[in-house]
Amino acid sequence: MLYICSCTKITFQLRYFIKLAYKGTNYHGWQYQPNAITIQELVNKALSTLLKSTIDVVGAGRTDAGVHATEYYAHFNVDDEINTDELVYKVNAILPNDIVVYAIFSTKEDLHARFDATARSYEYHIFLGRNPFKIETTWQIIHKKIDVAAMNKAAKLLLNYENFKSFSRSNTDVRTYNCKIERAEWQLNNTNLIFYITADRFLRNMVRAVVGTLLDVGTGRTSLKEFKKIIESKNRSNAGPSVPAKGLFLTKITYPKNSLNE
Predict the structure, then answer these.
(1) Overall fold of domain 119-252
(2) What's the rounded mean pLDDT across residues 183-190?
(3) Are 61 and 29 in contact (CB under 8 A)?
(4) Predicted local confidence at residue 259, as pLDDT
(5) What is the mean pLDDT of residues 49-69?
(6) pTM surpassing 0.90?
(7) Whose CA is closest to 167, among 254, 233, 78?
(8) How confident is the model at residue 260 (pLDDT cuts 50, 70, 90)?
(9) Active-site annotation holds for 64
(10) What 3-state DSSP class applies to 21?
(11) CATH 3.40.1700.10 fits 14-116, yes or no
């Protein structure tokens, strides 16, 4: 008896991570939008041109228009191995100068740039005064006395909570408003005031709303007791205003130990 095998050949794609940074001033955030220029769109086009196939990079998360990233990760799949050093050189020659690729490296085929990230860190930069050379990367404040010690007391309270709906953009479709904040503190160095925050995840507009509300504490508009009530209210209208995007930087994305083969 003759047996005919109709087996289908299974092929596996290779997964690569890309480490990059960008100055977000000229872009409408990371994520692709049909009627606006984004970082994801430009990275897709550059890689697709060089690899001669359609490449769709998956980012570690979205950043809003005008927000910067000093460390950002994304992943993409290809059928064949690539010369990563050569690709880094060529992709940087195509991308505009305010987007830089630092490295491209292979990873496990199931490592996901967004869903496998265990923590993200942001900084919000404020310049107390005027500096024309920092106008696109800091929020500049004058004629305000800010109590940094009071803001740090309020920031420390954030670590005691999990639900941050009060600082989330309204009408956001999310499964949960819970986040685990590991660090939240202000540091003042002469005229440079920086807020540092690290959490396992962030809600849309969360960091900018937190900063705006903490500044209300620092300028005396909101007491520590009132700040605590704002968190517990789970109502965005009770929190302070969102600060401008230009002072916000995504600075670090953490993945499980030894998962990135940089």
Answers:
(1) Alpha-Beta Plaits (3.30.70)
(2) 96
(3) no
(4) 81
(5) 95
(6) yes
(7) 233
(8) confident
(9) yes
(10) strand
(11) no
- Residue 251 and residue 73 in contact, taking contact as beta carbons nearer than 8 Å: no
From CA 262, how far away is CA 18, in angstroms rounded? 10
Phi, psi of 186 (to 5 degrees): -105, 145
Mean pLDDT of the chain: 93
| Cα 178 to Cα 156: distance, rounded to the nearest angstrom | 17
14 within 8 A of 105, measured Cβ to Cβ: no
Q: Which residues pair with 125 in a beta bridge?
A: 194
| 130 class by beta-carbon count within 10 Å (0-12 exposed, 13-18 middle, 19+ buried) | exposed
Q: Say which of 56, 64, 98, 110 is annotated catalytic.
A: 64
List the domain boundaries for the chain.
14-116, 119-252
- Compute the distance between CA of residue 94 and CA of residue 219 in angstroms, rounded to an integer: 46
Q: Which residues pair with 186 in a beta bridge?
A: 195
Q: How far is CA 249 from CA 136, 195, 252, in A?
A: 12, 10, 9
Per-residue pLDDT tens for 205-232? 999 999 999 999 999 999 999 999 999 9
- Could you tell me which of 162, 236, 160, 243 has the C-alpha nearest to residue 195? 243
Q: Do 14-116 and 119-252 come out as alike in CATH topology?
A: yes
Encoded tokens for 152: 């740090």
Report d(CA 233, CA 240) in Å as an integer: 13
Per-residue model confidence (pLDDT) at position 12? 66
- pLDDT at 261 (0 to 100): 72
- In whole angstroms, how far apart are CA 87 and each of 33, 92, 103? 25, 8, 9
User: Can you state the angle between helices 206-218 and 148-157, rounded to 10 degrees?
Assistant: 130
SS3 at position 212: helix
